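Structure in, sequence out. Go:
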């Protein structure tokens, strides 16, 4: 007793280790793990690349800000003494610093006059402290200048200067260019003179700025979108390969279950019952063909076993019947007082009975083996079968002075072999009959229990030693006493039959399990044995 906790403590880690090993080997768990990896990797990489892009973006903007400052410092001497008449000449000065890739825009907010209103470049009155477009490099037409000024106002670029016209600030804005495409507004540099507040807006249309994430979310950049498309295509391809294999294996599994479960029509079996026909992965074609050959071999083997069992039984029973018929004239010809000869004939007859039982036993063993190799399943109305077989035991029950009580629910259909089900019911009922005492009752019940059909056979015999309840389903196990439940001469006759070679209940269990069911035996509280068979109901 002291070793039990230690044994349990040792088995628990082994079970946990076996479960972890199963999870690791399982294709479903690997597919889930791979999916999680495909989700986690881009999240982690995106975060790292976004940080690197932010650092690169800051370098670009600082470079643009420095460039704007340098151009502003270069323009400042020309802006210090400027007046309204010199404004048109600023386009020439600004053109020295701008090109197709680096675009400059010069705006001014004139100093507020004593009257409280700003003086426009043309001398007219304007609203409170507006900015006016002065020049652009490359140069733009008047219509383009007005359109771009409105665009800068709408984008809020001019508002960034503030009321103090101080502070060089970086911009990160993308605006459409009037000639098509887009440019990146990178910096706005103020220059304060006696004339007013000047604003030098620098924009870039170079590839470094256009392809960067300045002014837009990082995920919307072409490089990220291309990488995401490639990654998603790769992930979809890998998952599609695994899913294809998974679906193919499921097709194989469905077909295997259908082959084991039989089919309602031979035409469908010939048409669909092929692994090669259901295979969609070329690399699994060889495996599918091997499965088809294996199934064909099993079916041929099962058919050969059934044919051999029938041929052998016929070959043995014919000479047995001839010997039995030949013994009868000898018994009539021998005088009754010749005890030795009569005893010899009796031994011959008993040996013939035993030999006949052995032949039947061998045939049933071969048929059971064939049923395990290739069980044939069809939709069988179990209710009708049990009711018909229960009614067929009237003569045997009357001979043994027994009573039958049955309760059979209608409409219970299972997928199995009708011949095999008949053998199962026959073994269970005859086993109950053989152990029942005179005037006893054999009870047969067939009921629905959820998705199962449950067949229960009760007798009022002596039951089974609890130590042997599990062993009665073992092959060759038999524990019978000639005088139990019947006269001794009848019991001795039954002992010579094949049903008492210890294979009846073994055949029951093997066939029931082959059909996806289960069987158990238990002693009844009121005496006797109860055999319970559960079979899954057909869909």
């Amino acid at each position: 007793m002291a070793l039990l906790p230690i044994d349990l403590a040792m088995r628990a880690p082994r079970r946990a280790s076996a479960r972890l090993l199963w999870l690791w080997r399982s294709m479903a768990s690997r597919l889930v793990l791979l999916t999680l990896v495909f989700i986690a990797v881009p999240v982690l990489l995106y975060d790292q690349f976004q940080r690197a892009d932010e650092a690169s973006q800051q370098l670009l903007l600082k470079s643009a800000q420095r460039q704007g400052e340098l151009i502003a410092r270069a323009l400042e001497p020309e802006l210090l003494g400027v007046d309204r008449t010199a404004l048109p000449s600023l386009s020439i000065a600004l053109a020295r610093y701008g090109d197709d890739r680096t675009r400059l825009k010069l705006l001014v907010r004139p100093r507020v006059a004593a009257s409280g209103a700003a003086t426009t470049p043309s001398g007219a009155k304007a609203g409170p402290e507006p900015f006016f477009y002065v020049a652009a490099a490359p140069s733009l037409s008047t219509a383009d200048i007005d359109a771009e000024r409105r665009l800068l106002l709408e984008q809020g670029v001019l508002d960034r200067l503030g009321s103090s016209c101080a502070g060089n600030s970086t911009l990160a804005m993308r605006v459409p260019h009037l000639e098509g495409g887009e440019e990146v507004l990178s910096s706005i540099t103020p220059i304060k003179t006696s004339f007013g507040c000047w604003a030098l807006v620098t924009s870039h249309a170079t590839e470094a700025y256009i392809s960067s994430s300045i002014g837009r979310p990082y995920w919307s950049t072409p490089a990220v979108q291309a990488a995401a498309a490639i990654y998603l295509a790769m992930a979809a391809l890998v998952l599609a390969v695994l899913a294809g294999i998974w679906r193919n294996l499921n097709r194989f599994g469905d077909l295997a279950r259908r082959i084991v479960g039989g089919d309602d029509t031979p035409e469908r079996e010939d048409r669909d019952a092929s692994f090669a026909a259901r295979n969609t992965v070329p690399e699994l074609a060889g495996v599918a063909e091997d499965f088809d050959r294996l199934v064909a071999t099993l079916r041929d083997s099962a058919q050969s076993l059934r044919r051999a069992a029938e041929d052998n039984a016929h070959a043995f029973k014919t000479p047995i019947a001839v010997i039995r018929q030949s013994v009868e004239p000898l018994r009539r010809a021998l005088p009754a007082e010749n005890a030795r000869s009569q005893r010899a004939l009796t031994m011959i007859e008993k040996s013939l009975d035993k030999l006949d039982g052995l032949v039947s036993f061998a045939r049933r063993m071969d048929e059971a083996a064939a049923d395990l190799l290739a069980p044939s399943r069809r939709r069988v109305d179990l209710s009708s079968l049990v009711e018909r077989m229960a009614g067929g035991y009237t003569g045997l029950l009357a001979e043994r002075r027994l009573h039958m009580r049955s309760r059979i629910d209608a409409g219970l259909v299972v997928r199995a072999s009708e011949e095999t089900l008949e053998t199962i019911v026959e073994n269970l009922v005859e086993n109950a009959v053989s152990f029942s005492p005179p005037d006893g009752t054999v009870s047969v019940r067939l009921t629905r229990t959820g998705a199962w059909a449950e067949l229960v056979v009760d007798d009022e015999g002596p039951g089974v030693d609890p130590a042997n309840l599990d062993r009665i389903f073992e092959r060759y196990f038999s524990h019978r006493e000639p005088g139990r439940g019947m006269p001794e001469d009848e019991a001795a006759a039954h002992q010579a039959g094949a049903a008492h070679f210890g294979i009846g209940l073994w055949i029951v269990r093997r066939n029931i399990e082959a059909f996806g069911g289960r069987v158990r035996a238990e002693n009844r509280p009121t005496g006797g044995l109860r055999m319970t068979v559960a079979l899954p109901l057909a869909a």
